[in-house]
């Protein structure tokens, strides 16, 4: 007994000893009232210093597992763990519709998975090799020394004030009039969108969006029981004509758009189209939710102002920003900019859900941003991504030549090949070690079976070349087979 303990290098030895003895007590190997070996004996059994045993015993006493009697030794306390007859609940039967729908819409679980060695074009996450970890470490130490222990205590639901002020200025610099507006810090776009829908919609409300659109947005809208009305896109963004037709026929609670480097098509809505869209929705009084997630990843052309900039002092546009593509997705920081009255309500919804986004994360992030690191990083990232983007477009046109290639920036391109089924294509490519995202998951009307998205941010140029060649040759094979069947 006691001599079989095996130490690892990660956890302090006194904690390993404490947990080992606790486990013996809970497992009934040590009975209540039983005397533990003296600290001297135990140290020679376990081959550790006596002080380590003394420390471990002190913790065991603090946690109520042993009592140390002066001059007598350490004794196991009476611990009541009376095993009862096994009781199982049928949790499956209790799972409600919300959880069932969440599970069935969970593409991470249900879509084709990356396996070691595969070239993956699935991801549109940033390339972590570009992150300036040293600057982030400095920001962490600096902010910890400024804020001290209070940064580890509860914060405010609206967010860390210096970060809010930084973002207000940041939004002003995008041409947005921030008078009468405020910001709520969220756990990325995803939470922001969910909070907005929870606050402004009710089941069966109709929501307008581009078709295709961000799959997570579709999922959240479905989970809110909303009716999604996707409007087809032209080569320069949403079809204004089709949008107008829908507006003439129906009533809508809200609209949601991704005007820059749209996911999945990569299209940037032109400034003229943004104005037309804004005017049309103004005419029908449908508030706009603008998703500006990728805006900074512009590689050519002039800055295009967000739709939120068009309404001046007006409050009709709610802008959701996120640092998930332009910086670090793991830190889960996004924001909602909108009418201050609405932000007040959204703040309460946020508080009722998760109190606030981690204050430590917000504070460190703020320190990192305000030191000019963001500008430096984005300059570097743009250069790297632009090169990959241009190379991806070149390879797509060369190797997947039957496809219509879309994408004007950002971290992905989108391809449509008339007459092929992208899921069949995916199956074949997976067998050849290449994986991507089938386009149908982005469609609001079960269409898009002939489309797919290729993320290039986390692959090398060499992988782009090899991968696109494989996809291209499988496209050709599929097309030949289809033609063959038609000729029979
Ligand atoms: C259209 C769109 N908006 C926002 C996001 C970012 O979401 P989050 O901030 O929750 O990571 C993504 C990520 O892929 C996206 O595609």
Task: Provide a concise account of the structure shown.
With 488 residues, this protein is an alpha/beta fold. The protein has helices at residues 13-26, 39-46, 50-62, 91-94, 97-104, 107-110, 133-147, 161-172, 188-200, 215-223, 240-249, 271-284, 340-354, 359-399, 422-431, 461-487; strands spanning 66-69, 73-76, 119-120, 181-186, 206-211, 227-234, 237-238, 254-257, 288-291, 317-322, 334-339, 404-406, 412-416, 434-435, 437-438, 451-455. It is built from 16 helices and 16 strands.
**What structural category do the secondary elements indicate?**
alpha/beta
Number of domains: 3
Helical percentage: 40-55%
Q: For the terminal residues, how far apart are their CA atoms?
A: 78 Å
GO molecular function, one term: pyridoxal phosphate binding
Domain HTH gntR-type: 11-79
InterPro entries: Aminotransferase_I/II_large, HTH_trans_reg/aminotransferase, PyrdxlP-dep_Trfase, PyrdxlP-dep_Trfase_major, PyrdxlP-dep_Trfase_small, Tscrpt_reg_HTH_GntR, WH-like_DNA-bd_sf, WH_DNA-bd_sf
Pfam families: Aminotran_1_2 (PF00155), GntR (PF00392)
What this model shows, in words?
There is one protein chain. By secondary structure, this protein is of the alpha/beta class. It folds into three domains: 13-76, Winged helix-like DNA-binding domain superfamily/Winged helix DNA-binding domain (Arc Repressor Mutant, subunit A, Orthogonal Bundle); 112-129 and 380-487, Aspartate Aminotransferase, domain 1, CATH 3.90.1150.10; 131-374, 3-Layer(aba) Sandwich (Aspartate Aminotransferase, domain 2), CATH 3.40.640.10. Helices cover 44% and strands 14% of the residues. It has helices at 13-26, 39-46, 50-62, 91-94, 97-104, 107-110, 133-147, 161-172, 188-200, 215-223, 240-249, 271-284, 340-354, 359-399, 422-431, 461-487; strands spanning 66-69, 73-76, 119-120, 181-186, 206-211, 227-234, 237-238, 254-257, 288-291, 317-322, 334-339, 404-406, 412-416, 434-435, 437-438, 451-455. It has an eight-stranded mixed beta sheet with strand order 4-11-10-9-8-5-6-7, sandwiched between helices. It has a four-stranded antiparallel beta sheet with strand order 12-13-16-15, covered by helices on one side. Strands 1-2 form a two-stranded antiparallel sheet. The longest helix is centred in the last third of the chain and has 41 residues, at 359-399. The chain starts with 12 loop residues before the first helix and ends with a helix.
């Amino acid at each position: 007994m006691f001599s079989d303990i095996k130490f690892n290098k990660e956890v302090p030895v006194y904690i390993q000893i404490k947990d080992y003895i606790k486990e013996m007590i809970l497992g009934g190997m040590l009975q209540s009232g039983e005397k533990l070996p003296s600290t001297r004996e135990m140290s020679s059994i376990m081959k550790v210093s006596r002080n380590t045993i003394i420390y471990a015993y002190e913790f065991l006493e603090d946690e109520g597992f042993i009592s140390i009697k002066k001059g007598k030794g350490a004794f196991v306390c009476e611990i009541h763990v009376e095993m009862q007859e096994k009781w199982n609940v049928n949790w499956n039967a209790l799972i409600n519709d919300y959880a069932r729908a969440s599970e069935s819409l969970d593409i991470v679980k249900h879509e084709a998975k990356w396996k070691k060695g595969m070239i993956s074009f699935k991801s549109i996450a940033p390339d972590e090799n570009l992150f300036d970890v040293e600057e982030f470490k400095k920001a962490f130490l600096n902010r910890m020394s400024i804020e001290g222990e209070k940064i580890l205590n509860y914060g405010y639901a609206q967010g860390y004030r210096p970060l809010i002020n930084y973002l207000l200025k940041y939004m002003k610099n995008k041409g947005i009039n921030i008078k009468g507006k405020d910001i709520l810090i969220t756990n990325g776009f995803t939470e922001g969108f969910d909070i907005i829908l929870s606050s402004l919609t009710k089941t069966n409300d109709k929501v307008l969006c581009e078709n295709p659109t961000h799959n997570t947005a579709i999922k959240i809208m479905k989970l809110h029981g909303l009716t999604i009305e996707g409007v087809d896109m032209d080569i320069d963004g949403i079809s204004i004509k089709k949008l107008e037709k829908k507006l003439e026929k129906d009533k809508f609670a809200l609209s949601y758009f991704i005007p820059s480097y749209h996911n999945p098509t990569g299209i940037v809505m032109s400034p003229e189209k943004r104005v037309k869209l804004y005017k049309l929705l103004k005419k029908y009084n449908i508030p706009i939710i603008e998703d500006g997630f990728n805006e900074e990843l512009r590689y050519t052309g002039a800055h295009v102002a967000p739709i939120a900039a068009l309404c001046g002092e007006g409050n009709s546009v709610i802008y959701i920003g996120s640092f998930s593509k332009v910086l670090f997705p793991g830190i889960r920081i996004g924001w909602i900019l909108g009418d201050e009255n609405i932000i007040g309500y959204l703040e309460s919804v946020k508080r009722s859900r998760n109190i606030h986004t981690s204050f430590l994360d917000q504070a460190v992030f703020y320190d990192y941003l305000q030191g000019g690191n963001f500008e430096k990083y984005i300059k570097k990232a743009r250069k790297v991504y632009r090169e990959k983007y241009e190379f991806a477009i070149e390879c797509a046109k060369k190797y997947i030549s039957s496809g219509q290639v879309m994408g004007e920036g950002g971290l992905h391109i989108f391809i449509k090949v008339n007459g092929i089924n992208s899921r069949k294509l995916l199956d074949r490519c997976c067998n050849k070690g290449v994986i991507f995202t089938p386009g149908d998951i982005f469609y609001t009307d079960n269409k898009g079976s002939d489309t797919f998205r290729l993320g290039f941010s986390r692959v090398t140029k060499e992988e782009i070349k090899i991968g696109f060649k494989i996809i291209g040759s499988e496209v050709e094979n599929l097309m030949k087979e289809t033609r063959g069947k038609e000729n029979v």
